[in-house]
Amino acid sequence: MQQTSVWREPGMPALIGMVVAGFSGYALLMPIAPLWAARGGADEAGVGAVTGVFMLFTVLVQLFVPTAIRRFGWTPVLVTGLFLLGAPSLAHLLSDALLPILALAAVRGAGFAVLTVCGSSAVAELVEPARRGRAIGAFGLGIAGPQVLLLSVAPWLAEHLGVWLVFALATAPVIGIAFAVPLGRRLDALPPHPEPEHAHRGMRRYLGLLPPMLLLLGVTLAGGALITFVPQFGVSALDAMLGLLLLTGLAALSRWGVGHLADRVGAGRIMWPFVIVTVVGMALIAWSVADAGRTAALLAGMALVGIAYGALQNLTLGVAFEAVPRRDHVVASAVWNIGFDAGTGLGAMVVGALAAAFAFPPALLAATALSLLTLPLAFLGLRDRGRSHAPG
What is the tens place of the pLDDT at every residue in 265-309? Predict the structure, then answer.
């Protein structure tokens, strides 16, 4: 019997609609909120702090999302998160001072925490393990579509059409509530997962989540730095847009494409090459920034980091779901998202602070070294753990 496409699984269309709306708001403000702070007089460290605070509050709130779902249910948690992510956007127009921007970043980060944890854990709830790689890929395309289209052009929109338009469009997560309500009802109606026989108690059962989380942190640290600072690398607006387009576009394609391979051979077996790709790409970018004339090297580096950025998102999420029983998938989602968002925030903060003290090339090389340090964790996945947990 032919299987239904993962795109048409019950609940998946609503999930994709919700993440498209939610990540549209995120993508538009990811480069523009820091740029708004720079226009208000913030230095490199202050600009990096905008992304850093956003991700800090994302990570802090992600810790509590699994408990909130168990206590209140999926629907109210999703609705609250999307409102917090989208509604504060227009408030940026009231001030370009750093402190109000940081306060808005904190509120939006709390909403983003809900979207990320609920979105990725919903994938595991809606689609069976044998097709999880493809489902993660579909979910990733829903995320990456807005980023490809909006993150790379947001600086152009702000410069040529007005920053007010970007702040208005970034309220899109509020529209996503229309998709979140039916999705939440679908998830709330699913039967609870029983406790697996001989299950580990306490925090020990989550130890298997640490390697994929730390590995993901390495590549998202690089990605967070690039998304925040590419417009300030001394390149033209066109080159900055092309670089971000390569990063986000290739990330979308690799996150989707690697899902099919992960379903066949196991996600843990194919992580290590993409760590190396990250390191090579970041080294190229650092070399290119040292000399503004090396535009081809910059674009090549952005392309390489984009490929690794997307592939490792898919693979590490798959490994995280494999590491715990199905009843703990929402916890795996929270831990994975903490790795993703902590890396993004640290990338902006660390590279911003180092660039303020030294310059961008050594700051980018520091991010390259941190990514390289995660390589041993990738080899832990060579033994396929992907079928060790039954879906019950």
Answer: 777 778 888 999 999 999 999 998 887 668 889 999 999 999 999
